[in-house]
Amino acid sequence: MVKALEERGSVHYNYIMKGNIILSISLSILLPFISPLLGQPKKTLQDLDPRHRKWLEEEVVYIITPKEKDVFLRLESDRERDIFIDAFWKARDPIPNTPKNEFKEEHYARIQYANNWFGKDSPAPGWRTDMGRIYITLGPPQQIQNFENMTEVYPLIIWFYGGMAEYGLPNAFNVVFFKRGGMGEYELYSPIKFGPQHLLIHYRGDMTDYLSAYGQLLNIEPAIAEVSLTLIPGDSSLSPSPSMASEILIRSKIPSAPFEKVKDTYAEKLLAYKDIVEVDYTANYIDCDSMVTVFEDKSGIFFVHYLIEPKRLTFEKLGARYIANLEINGKVSGLEGNTVYQFERAIPIEFSEEQMDKIKAKLFSYQDLFPLVGGRYTFNSLVKNTVSKEFTSVEADITVPDSRSLRMSPLVLANKIDRDSQYKEKNKPFLFAGSQLVPSPRNDFTSKDTLYVYFQIQGMTENLREKGILEYSILKESEKVHTKLKSVREYSDAKNFLVEFPLTNFSPAYYTVNVSLLGQNKEEVLSQKSLFYITALAYLPRPWILSLPLPPSSDPVYKNILGTQYFNKKDMQKAPLFLEEAYRRNPSSPKFALDFCQVLFLAKDYRGLKQVALPFLQEKTKYEFLQLLGQSSQALGEFEEAISYYKDYLSHFGTNIAVLNSIGECYYRLGNTDEALVAWEKSLEIDSRQEKLRSLVKSIKEKK
Fewer CB atoms inside 10 Å of the end CB: C or N, the chain? Predict the structure, then answer.
């Protein structure tokens, strides 16, 4: 056994996690986003089929993280579990762009080796023995010392490992196995649990006298004596008592070593989005950094500004061009789970070789914004890459003020600013009061940077405008290292505030920037703070940014969006006002007209609806209006006209039970029971569970 282990030691392979990350994404789905992790019922091991139970209990039992195991037990079908297993191995693939998964192959080779060489003295298979567990977890040791045939010491084997600090382990350590009482399988030795006394065959002294037992071992074999009290060479705690650091090593650090470099975020994302993204994406979640914040623009509209920075954006080379394709879906939900707003973006990207050379070493930042009415929400954005078949996501709770009461916004920290943006007359992410900020979701800076801090104060009273003071402080470990005061009236804009701090004299460390609004008696009225850090590096790779300018706030598109949001919130006082204004300002827009027609129908303004919709019957978009026109004509008693609209609708969109039933109702009101029966019987063929309709049809036939 030892000889075979020594031979295998030459192919030692440290577990490393997959470091690939990709961006850009294709969405051919509409969102219901996102099933919460705890909303899924948890299965027991007995609920799993034998294949998946074996995978979880035997094959990955030592390397699966608690989060991964929890998600696996919440999956609902064998298909989902197979997708998860694929994602599990991909998350650990050290060279992801090749067909071979070195980690997976090495892991199963370790299991096979453990089953072949360990457990010969145990009823359990080799993978379940202490030796098998350590071997599967850490791989083959670098050195082996074998003390199996000594007359004064029970059979003992020492495995030495080194160079595994990246897994949270000491730079050098030993793992010791011995046969307790000289019988059975090799057992993991713990200096605290056993001590040197349990290694000696003929020890007759006090079982609490570690020093005496250690002295005997030292005379017999110094190498055994050394590991009897500590498994970590050079451990400063070496004394007549066993090392606590050794106990932490074998009980905590070694079992958690396989988790150290694995980012298991993909697991909960797979669970959350498994019903939304296509199968070829679900195993490929990408980590990202993100920022989501809310600010008011000069028109009084609140915009959600957000950015997503995946760890990498993958391009596909086609000839001399490099392509990627981003498709972004966003959804805003109310606290009750109702959809308030939903959007989709499709952004193809194409670079020349020269352009690719300039950005390939940089991070990538996708930035966007959208208007949102007042309230508290959950925001989800899902990004898929049609080129790489990978996806990433952002989830955030956001609050949009629904009043103009006194408040201070969160702070945005930026490392760069363009005070004269060419897009100042448009809307653009993180463009505030004509200044384009470049924030980082990590709030990271070098000492060569300038820290720009931007924030807003809404609802400023006249007294605060005249006598208020803004106190800016930078703190290091709760101690103020820099403070500046500035009166509010020094700012020309009493809503938008920007302050800058050159970081030349700040040493690398973590800091807090704190902004306080003080009243005329220096009392604190409002405050916000944000963490940031200054790196010791001379340079930080800043991302290339993709953000598309949007129309200015005066564009009626925003009235339409806000009106639709009020409509989805069932606010039928505000929704008609916004939707009508959007339509009045651009009556040729089919979308604006259709959305306005929705509120006119709910308001039972059928004449008004027809007046808005009828001009579009000559357009290609006419089909979108047909059902509303049919319903309005029917409500007005114009049954023949309604039937015409309904039939035109069916010819374009196909069978619709509600429309068939309405056609039947119109014919019935016109006294044409034969045509009414044709429509209703067709409806019953599609859905036979319409008992009231079935009774009506039966009654009409009986009267004939």
Answer: C
